[in-house]
């Protein structure tokens, strides 16, 4: 009887461990999102997104966090691989677009990664400029 319980315990333990490993590797190695090819969940002016985050960042996170969004605004600063729209939206690019000139109106598509309360900026990554 004791050997039987031990055998059942080992089998249950192996099933649990293999399930945990499968779940861990499935989470760790899931495919990367292609934000450029995804359909935008929201399309809005840059100032509206900034106002929503500054007034209630928790509610805005509930709506926009990790969502693909398109925002329209004026380029106020260009540095490294970042474009800042309307002084409040920081858009991160893998490679800096050639047509990024200050004071130019553009539409940017990217993934919202949240609000930086220290600087008062909304951050997007994996951005592309829509033509």
Automatic annotation (TrEMBL):
Output the lineage of the source organism. Answer: Bacteria, Pseudomonadati, Bacteroidota, Flavobacteriia, Flavobacteriales
Listed name of the protein: tRNA_anti-like
Q: Which UniProt keywords apply?
A: Membrane, Transmembrane, Transmembrane helix
Output the Pfam families linked to this UniProt entry: tRNA_anti-like
Q: Which residues cross the membrane?
A: 6-25
Asked whether the UniProt record includes Membrane among its keywords, one would answer yes
> Which superkingdom does the taxonomy of this entry point to?
Bacteria
């Amino acid at each position: 009887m004791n050997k039987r319980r031990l055998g059942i315990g080992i089998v249950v333990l192996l099933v649990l461990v293999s399930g945990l490993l499968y779940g861990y590797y499935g989470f760790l190695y899931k495919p990367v999102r292609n934000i450029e090819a995804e359909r935008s969940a929201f399309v809005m002016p840059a100032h509206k997104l900034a106002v929503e985050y500054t007034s209630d960042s928790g509610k805005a996170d509930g709506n926009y966090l990790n969502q693909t969004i398109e925002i329209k605004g004026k380029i106020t600063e260009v540095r490294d691989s970042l474009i800042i729209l309307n002084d409040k939206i920081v858009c991160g690019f893998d490679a800096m677009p050639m047509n990024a000139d200050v004071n130019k109106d553009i539409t940017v598509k990217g993934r919202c990664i949240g609000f930086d309360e220290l600087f008062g900026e909304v951050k997007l990554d994996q951005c592309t400029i829509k033509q």
